[in-house]
Amino acid sequence: MQAEFDVERPSYQQLNEETPKSTCLYYQDDPITLYNQFIRLYNQDINQVNGIRLEEMKSSKVVQFIHNYLRNFVGSFVLLIILFIPLLNIGFYILILFAAISLNQNYLIFRNNISKCQIDYIGLVLDPFGNMVENQDICVMMKKNYLVFKLDIKETEGLHFSKNVKEMIKNRSSGTGDNKIEFTIYNQNLKQDYYGFPNYRCSYLVWSLSGCLIIIAECTTSEIMFYVYQVNN
């Protein structure tokens, strides 16, 4: 199962420090790609909660391209300058607008996934990380946001987890017959990839609004200057 898992999903190896930057046009670490990586991980049988499957978002090349620059201060500063350059700012604004529209469309999928975990009759929201184990230290050591382990039951005794976590992991062996346990370890970054999507949506809306206001101000200024020129001549 591990081999199938590695083939089907984009690997976080492309996002760690060992990735040769010269071979990448841009990193696919935009909010949609990261969200979908978690969804693929969650939809594996070992991680599903109550058999609930979640839906992936629709990927967007525009979001990937724009986010590559907005994710750091220098890139954001350069794009801010472009907003004040006539014609270039219109093209950039169109890209930002398309990215914002894509994020808003995918926000509906985000809300739908949240509602799938809602148990209406008791008002409880299931945690999609409920069948995973959070361990920041192991993820930092391996330079990963998550890892999938497959161990013998005896090997779990040496893990430095709480008693409840160890019991939860051991229960994975029920009915397998091979004394093997498969489980996922994750860190807070992975959790942010899932729950933090609405924050990116708001950021792009702010950029869209800012770009629109700047373009309107420039157009208004140009009209005033043209009017003054006509009056003086």
Gyration radius from CA atoms, angstroms: 23 Å
SS content category: mainly alpha
Q: DSSP strand (E) fraction?
A: 5-15%
Oligomer: single chain
What can be said about the biggest beta sheet?
3 strands, mixed
Task: Name the overall outline.
Answer: elongated
In helices, the fraction of residues equals 40-55%
Question: SSE order, as H and E?
Answer: HHHHHEEEHEHEHH
* Strand line-up across the major sheet: 3-5-4
Number of helices: 9
Give the count of structural domains. Answer: 1
Task: Indicate the mean pLDDT.
Answer: 76
Uncertain parts = 1-27
- Span between termini: 79 Å
List how many beta strands DSSP finds. Answer: 5
Transmembrane segments: 77-101, 204-229
Keywords: Membrane, Transmembrane, Transmembrane helix
Protein name: Transmembrane protein
Organism: Paramecium tetraurelia
Describe the protein.
The protein has a three-stranded mixed sheet. Strands 1-2 form a two-stranded antiparallel ribbon. The chain has helices at residues 2-8, 31-42, 61-70, 73-82, 88-116, 136-142, 163-170, 188-195, 197-232; strands at 118-119, 124-125, 133-134, 146-152, 180-186. Helices cover 55% and strands 9% of the residues. It has one domain (2-126, 192-232). A hairpin with a 4-residue loop joins strand 1 (118-119) and strand 2 (124-125). The chain is mainly α.
